[in-house]
Design goal:
Distance between the termini: 82 Å
Number of helices: 3
Radius of gyration: 27 Å
Oligomer: single chain
Largest sheet: none
Strand content: under 5%
Number of strands: 0
Order of helices and strands: HHH
Helix content: over 70%
Length: 122
């Protein structure tokens, strides 16, 4: 039939459609983002800044209080800049780092309990 060019033609048309939709999505997203910035309400007065506890043995509380203080400062900077997206990667890094640290500490405590129970049973 001589239609060996048909798959190439279809692939070029599909690639063009995909590129067109992707470009239009990016343009619409950019225009919406520029014109519709969200401003977060002022929460600086509502959130107390936690001071680390006085005992040196509570490292978890100290670490969490330090992370909370960083998040409060970051929220204040967002409010000052009127940009609700400022520092979102830093915020995610702080939160997920603390969650991971707490999970690892919980696993360490569980392993310690299992080891001490194994020692007691022998």
């Amino acid at each position: 039939m001589g239609l060996s060019w048909l798959p190439y033609c279809v692939s070029v048309i599909l690639a063009g459609l995909f590129a067109g939709f992707s470009l239009s999505y990016l343009v619409i997203t950019f225009l919406f983002d520029v014109n519709c910035r969200r401003v977060r309400p002022a929460t600086r007065e509502n959130v107390p800044v936690l001071a680390p506890p006085k005992s040196a043995t509570s490292t978890i509380r100290e670490r969490l209080a330090e992370g909370n203080n960083l998040l409060v400062r970051l929220d204040g900077e967002r409010e000052r800049r009127h940009d609700s997206r400022f520092g979102t990667m830093t915020e995610q890094r702080i939160v997920w780092g603390e969650l991971l640290e707490l999970e690892l500490q919980d696993i360490d405590e569980q392993i310690s309990r299992i080891c001490s129970a194994a020692r007691d049973s022998t």
